[in-house]
Amino acid sequence: MRLVPKMILGVDEAGRGPLAGPVAIGVIAVPETFLIAREFPMLADSKLLSPLARARLFKLMRARMRVGDIQFCVRFTSARRIDKWGLTRAVRNTVSRGVRALAPDPSDVRIFLDGLLTAPEEYDQQTIVGGDEAVPAIALASIAAKVTRDRFMVRMAKLFPHYGFEIHKGYGTKAHRLALKKYGPSAIHRMSFLRS
C-alpha cells in the first residue's frame, strides 16, 4: 500500500515559433489524488482562453501553490541559446531543467507531456499529441508557460520599443517583420529564425 501519493507532472511549451524571445517550458506537479478539473473549473488549453481567463487561472495557480496544493515552474531558454543549439536541443534541455526542478527523484512520478516533448529517459512518461486539450495537468502547464512568457515579452517591449513585442509577443506578424526591416534585429531576436 502506497503511503505517499504518486506525483503527476504536466509539461507544455510556449514560444516555439516566434522570431524573438525565449522558448518557455511550463511544468506543474500535483499529487495523483488532486482533482485538477474540479479545482480549476474554467481550465482549457491556453490557446483557447482569452488573456484575461489565462491571467485568472494563473493567479489561482499561484494561490494554490502558496498553500501547498500544487507546484509549478517555468524555465526559459534564450534566443541566443536557441541559435547556438537549435530549437530541438534547446527545448529538450529546458524540459529537463523544469522536470528536475520539481521532481529530482524520478521514482513515484508520472509525467504527461504535450506534442513532441520528452522528459529525461529515467522518468515514467507519456507524450500526448493535443495533450493540452486532453490532460488537465498539461493544460495548467500550458497556462503557466504562456502567461509567464507573455509577461516577459511585455517587459522586453520596454527595452526594445520599436518592435511591438507587447502586442505580438515576438511572433512573425506583418508589423513585426516591417519593424525588423526598418530597425534590424534586437538582442532577443532568434537569428537562426530570421535566416530561414
Automatic annotation (TrEMBL):
Subcellular location: Cytoplasm
Catalytic activity: Endonucleolytic cleavage to 5'-phosphomonoester
Keyword Translocase recorded: no
A Gene Ontology biological process term: DNA replication, removal of RNA primer
Domain RNase H type-2: 6-196
GO MF annotation list: metal ion binding; RNA binding; RNA-DNA hybrid ribonuclease activity
Keywords (A to Z) from UniProt: Cytoplasm, Endonuclease, Hydrolase, Manganese, Metal-binding, Nuclease
Residues that coordinate or bind a divalent metal cation: D12, E13, D114
Cofactor: record remark: Manganese or magnesium. Binds 1 divalent metal ion per monomer in the absence of substrate. May bind a second metal ion after substrate binding.
Listed GO CC annotations: cytoplasm; ribonuclease H2 complex
Pfam families assigned to the protein according to its UniProt record, in alphabetical order: RNase_HII
First-tier enzyme category under EC: hydrolase
Assigned EC number: 3.1.26.4
PROSITE patterns found in the cross-reference section: RNASE_H_2
Cofactor entry: Mn(2+); Mg(2+)
InterPro entries xrefs: RNase_HII, RNase_HII/HIII, RNase_HII/HIII_dom, RNaseH-like_sf, RNaseH_sf
Function recorded in the entry: Endonuclease that specifically degrades the RNA of RNA-DNA hybrids.
PANTHER family: RIBONUCLEASE H2 SUBUNIT A (PTHR10954), RIBONUCLEASE HII (PTHR10954:SF18)
Family as reported in the entry's similarity comment: Belongs to the RNase HII family.
Name of this protein: Ribonuclease
